[in-house]
């Protein structure tokens, strides 16, 4: 099992592979693994890690195509395809490096259809698709699928193509500000994850605001979105606000918590969470309860109000807004979530605080 991680600032990719109980080290002699140019991250026991590729420009979304090629979106540049020499374990290096799409507007989102023959990517404003040939790593002409997503501040548009429900594409659009007052109005389609049915698109171009179905709203910036491969459950990880006050007290060092949210299923079975409001900008998840003035019986993960009024208060936040399934320390900045193939584990990357 290997996990490829992209480091936007260091422009490097790293593979971590779990070793069996009797890990064979014999490949290390012939391995010409790259040495990290940065101080290497520490690795949990049972894992090893090594860089796979250098020379990337702001790599963001990454995936494997059906031939085992890495496709990586380089923010402000396009999509690169990397075929690999694989000598086992973490001894993986680039064999061939080829430009797949050259476009400076692409900035994060990437997805492949379950048959591996349609490639999707996003800019801040639009979602595109291409017919993709995995045997050559080349694309045909692009098609615009969704438009109308432009806003300031949070400009990435994470894409998740359901593997359970073919043709259903989820798109995550963040807020236009640290605290985006506008998004209390559901018709302002920022801070939302929406689903779009590509089976029905024909020659249309969907408009993000007027088309699609709301999977969740009140999401400040849900950059990571994933589907549990066994149940089809949809989860997101959400980067929450900075510089918050409650009742005039600065609470920003240890609140609010960052979030892992549950969004229900795409197969038509309804849950209370699906289409619900997750809080932004009125309600936030508790991390350090003792740091919150008038915390009453709040506990970690419960939603609290920052500006307490008769109508918008902790009670409202708990009854009318959906609490996270997991809460992380303030400012950990989760940016992606991936499931193992059996759906029994999820992996979350964290950017970490400023
Ligand atoms: C791919 O090749 C280009 C052109 O030689 C180079 O600038 C870039 O750094 C290479 N990228 C990777 C990931 O090897
Ligand atoms: C789509 O194709 C048009 C026409 O060739 C091109 O101008 C545009 O840059 C392409 N967009 C993307 C995202 O590749
Ligand atoms: C949708 O998926 C859930 C979880 O896997 C399952 O419990 C439910 O029965 C499914 N609904 C339909 C209509 O298939
Ligand atoms: C995450 O939130 C922090 C503020 O807590 C902000 O500085 C950072 O830019 C955000 N990153 C993303 C990707 O939303
Ligand atoms: C909370 O109150 C502050 C100070 O009056 C204001 O600047 C901010 O916009 C309010 N936030 C919300 C979500 O109402
Ligand atoms: C504490 O919880 C109880 C029971 O859920 C509720 O009735 C009460 O209003 C809560 N108190 C505060 C201060 O939130």
TrEMBL record:
Tree of life domain: Eukaryota
Annotated signal peptide: 1-24
Domain spans labelled Pyrroloquinoline quinone-dependent pyranose dehydrogenase beta-propeller: 41-354
Protein keywords: Signal
Full protein name: Pyrroloquinoline quinone-dependent pyranose dehydrogenase beta-propeller domain-containing protein
Organism: Glutinoglossum americanum
């Amino acid at each position: 099992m290997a996990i490829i991680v992209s480091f936007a600032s260091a422009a490097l990719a790293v593979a971590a592979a779990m070793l069996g109980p009797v890990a064979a080290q014999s490949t290390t002699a012939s391995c010409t693994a790259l040495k990290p140019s940065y101080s290497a991250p520490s690795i949990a026991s049972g894992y090893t890690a090594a860089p796979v590729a250098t020379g990337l420009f702001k790599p963001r979304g990454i995936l494997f195509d059906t031939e085992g090629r890495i496709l990586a979106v380089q923010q402000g540049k396009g999509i690169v395809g990397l075929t690999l020499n694989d000598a086992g374990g973490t001894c993986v290096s680039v064999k061939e490096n080829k430009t797949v799409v050259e476009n400076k507007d692409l900035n994060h989102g990437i997805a492949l259809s379950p048959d591996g023959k349609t490639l999707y990517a996003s800019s801040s404003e639009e979602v595109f698709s291409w017919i993709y040939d995995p045997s050559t790593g080349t694309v045909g002409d692009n098609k615009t699928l969704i438009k109308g997503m432009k806003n300031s501040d949070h400009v990435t548009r994470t894409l998740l193509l359901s593997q359970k429900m073919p043709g259903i594409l989820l798109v995550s659009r963040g807020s236009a500000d640290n605290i985006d007052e506008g998004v209390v109005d559901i018709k302002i389609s920022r801070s939302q994850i929406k689903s779009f049915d590509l089976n029905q698109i024909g020659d249309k171009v969907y408009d993000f605001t007027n088309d699609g179905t709301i999977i969740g709203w009140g999401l400040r910036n849900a950059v990571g979105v994933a589907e549990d491969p066994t149940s089809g459950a949809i989860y997101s990880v959400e980067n929450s606000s900075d510089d918050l006050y409650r009742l005039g007290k600065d609470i920003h060092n240890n609140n609010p918590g960052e979030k892992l949210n549950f969004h229900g299923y795409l197969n038509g079975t309804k849950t209370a969470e699906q289409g619900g409001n997750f809080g932004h900008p009125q309600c936030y998840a508790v991390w350090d309860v003792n740091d919150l003035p008038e915390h009453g019986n709040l506990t970690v993960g419960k939603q609290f109000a920052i500006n307490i009024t008769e109508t918008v208060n902790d009670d409202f936040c708990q009854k009318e807004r959906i609490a996270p399934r997991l809460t992380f320390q303030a400012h950990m900045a989760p940016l992606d979530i991936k499931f193992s193939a059996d759906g029994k584990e999820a992996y979350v990357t964290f950017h970490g605080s400023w």
